[in-house]
Amino acid sequence: MVRVRASLSRLPSYVPGRKLPGAVVLASNESPHGLLPGVAATLVESAGGVSRYPDLHASSLIEALAAHHAVEPDRIAVGAGSSEVCGQLLHTVVGPGDEVVFGWRSFEAYPILTTVAGGTAVPVPLRDHALDLDAMAAAITARTRLVFVCNPNNPTSTAVGARALTAFADRVPRDVLIVVDEAYREYADPARVPDGLALLGDRPNVAVLRTFSKAYGLAGLRVGYCVAPPGIAAHVRRTQVPFSVSGLAQRAAVVALGERAEVARRAALTVAERDRVAGRLRELGHDVPDSEANFVWLPLGADSGDFARHCADGKVMVRPFPGEGVRVTIGLPEENDALLALAASRRG
Ligand code: PMP
C-alpha cells in the first residue's frame, strides 16, 4: 500500500470563487477591465510560439521587472502566479517542523502551501479585521522560519501603516524571512500604505511579493514574482518548477508593465467604485472596514452564507467565508449596482 504523507490529511482545500453562467462575478478579486490594450495583440502574435518551451530564465521579464523597480535583476524571481512564488519562498527556507507565522484570516494559500512544504502553520487571529502585528511578533519562536504579512490583507481589505510595519520588522529575528505580500498594492493609497520594497527592501530578511493577476488583469495567465535579497532570490529560482511561467505569460507581463499609466487609470476607477460601494453598504448598516484593496469585507458572521446565497439567487457571485464574513470584489459600476441592489433588498 502506498503511504500518503500524514500531514496532507490536515490540508485545507483552496476554495475558488464560484462562477455561474450569466452571473456577475465579484468573487475572485480579478480586474473587471479585461486585457490591457497591448496585451491582446501580443498574445495573438506569440501564439505560434507555444509549440516551443519558453525561456527557462524568463530573462526579458526579469529585466523589465528590475527596471520597473530600479533593482538589480538578481533580486527577482518569477513564478506561475505569486501563489507559486509563495510556495517557492516556503521551499527555500522551511523544512519539516519549522513554523510559519501569518495573520488569520488571510490568504488561504498560506496554510496550504506551508503544510505542503512540511512546515507547521501558526495562524494569529486578526484584531478589528486587521493584522495584529504585535501578536504576530509574539508568536515567533526559535522554530519560526518565515512570516507572511499580507498588506493589504485578503480577505479583510485592511492595511498596516509604515510605522507599524517597520516596528514589526525590527522585532523579527534576522534569520526569519518576512514575506510582504502586496498582491493588491496598486489599489492602496500610498499616503497610508507603505510600499514594502521602498520601506524594507534593503533588509537582508525581507522579500516582497507582487502579482500580475489583479491590477494588471492577467489572472488567467499565471505570473507573479518576488523581489528579495540576491542570495534568497537565487534559491527561490532554484525551487521553481521548470518552465512554469509560459512564454505567453512572460511576454504579456512585459507588455503590461509598459502600460503603467493605463494600469494606474484602471486602478483609480476601481478605487473610486470601492469607496462608493463601501459608503453605500455602510448606509445599509454594514460594518465595512476601510479597504485598501479591490474588494470590501462584510463581517456578517453566521449570516455570511445566507447573504452569499441571496446574492447568487440574484445572479451576483460573491465569496463567503462561512461564519466569518463575505468578500465582495469591486467590478464595473453596473455590476456593483447589482450587488448594492441585492444588499438593499435583503435588508428591506
Ligand atoms: N496573495 C494574495 C494576498 C492574494 O489574494 C492572491 C490571490 N488571491 C495571491 C497572492 C496570488 O495570486 P496569483 O497566484 O494569481 O498571483
From TrEMBL:
Domain Aminotransferase class I/classII large stretches: 24-336
Catalytic activity: an aromatic L-alpha-amino acid + 2-oxoglutarate = an aromatic oxo-acid + L-glutamate
Gene designation: pat
A GO BP annotation: L-histidine biosynthetic process
GO molecular function list: aromatic-amino-acid transaminase activity; histidinol-phosphate transaminase activity; pyridoxal phosphate binding
Pfam families given in the database record: Aminotran_1_2
NCBIfam families per UniProt: PRK03321.1
Residue positions where N6-(pyridoxal phosphate)lysine is found in the record: 214
Name of protein: Aromatic amino acid aminotransferase
Listed EC numbers: 2.6.1.57
Cofactor requirements of the protein: pyridoxal 5'-phosphate
PROSITE patterns: AA_TRANSFER_CLASS_2 (PS00599)
